[in-house]
Amino acid sequence: MKWITRERPKIDRLACPWLIIKFVDKDAQFIYVPFKDVLRVALELDATPFDIPDVEYTHYGDECTFDYIVKKHKIQDPAIYIIANIVRGADTDRLDIAKEAAGLSAISSGLSYNIKDDYELLETGFKIYDALYSWAMHLYNQNHLQNSPFENLLHEVYLKFLKSKNATKKPQWVKELKEMIQDQVDAQLSIDIKKLSSELELNPSYLSREFSKYFDDLNFGDYVRKKRIEKAIDFMNNPKITLTEISYLTGFSDQSHFTRIFKKYMGQSPSQFRKKLEKK
């Protein structure tokens, strides 16, 4: 089947032939002629005109010819839906529709400027849309850092830099809070973030939100449990103190609770851990 449109294709008149070949008519032939000759030559060659006014395959409302082909031929492909938004944004100069629309517009304009032969331009355009389809099908949810080990390494270095930079500017309350938590762990007292925030004259919500930045990337509860486990390990070096006593001395509700939390953090039960200490 022959398809015809106006010469000097740029966006829709490259995207539509690609879509037609892929999903509508794999044997399609495309003809580019001056705008004033499209309808006349279409009649002479029995070709289907597209992307010109007053024909079936054209723009409707805010949608472009690419959109019409998708609907007309009931193309149900998630990747094509993604591409349709990009083509519509680029072809109608509404670049806010898809963030990739500006890039497609720029590339299409550059191709049209560099390649003067419409059929060579069409062949090159097919490669562009093949690549765009592969991206929409397989890579749409990936970002540049995921695809570039070098960029990812730079990103990690930057994050470490920020972390080290922040570490040199710890608020005064961080040191005070660490000491308060340690004191209460040593005294087997219950630890309440609201009470601590009141003593530090800080808003509890602020303290909860900022806590992990300065305490090993742990939330308040996990950090306290970590300190209790560290305290328990200190007690295990004394064989005269039973595990039941250790669970009580470190603020756990009972030995079962102590065992469960210890295994979560250390990867083994308290009794297994203690046996290894005794062998050293």
UniProtKB/TrEMBL annotation:
It comes from the Bacteria. PROSITE patterns: HTH_ARAC_FAMILY_1 (PS00041), HTH_ARAC_FAMILY_2 (PS01124). Keywords: DNA-binding, Transcription, Transcription regulation. InterPro entries: ChrB_C, Homeodomain-like_sf, HTH_AraC, HTH_AraC-typ_CS, Tscrpt_reg_AraC-type_HTH. Coiled coil: none annotated. Gene3D superfamilies: Homeodomain-like. Residues 175-276 form the HTH araC/xylS-type domain. This is Chromate resistance protein. It comes from Polluticaenibacter yanchengensis. The lineage of its organism: Bacteria, Pseudomonadati, Bacteroidota, Chitinophagia, Chitinophagales.
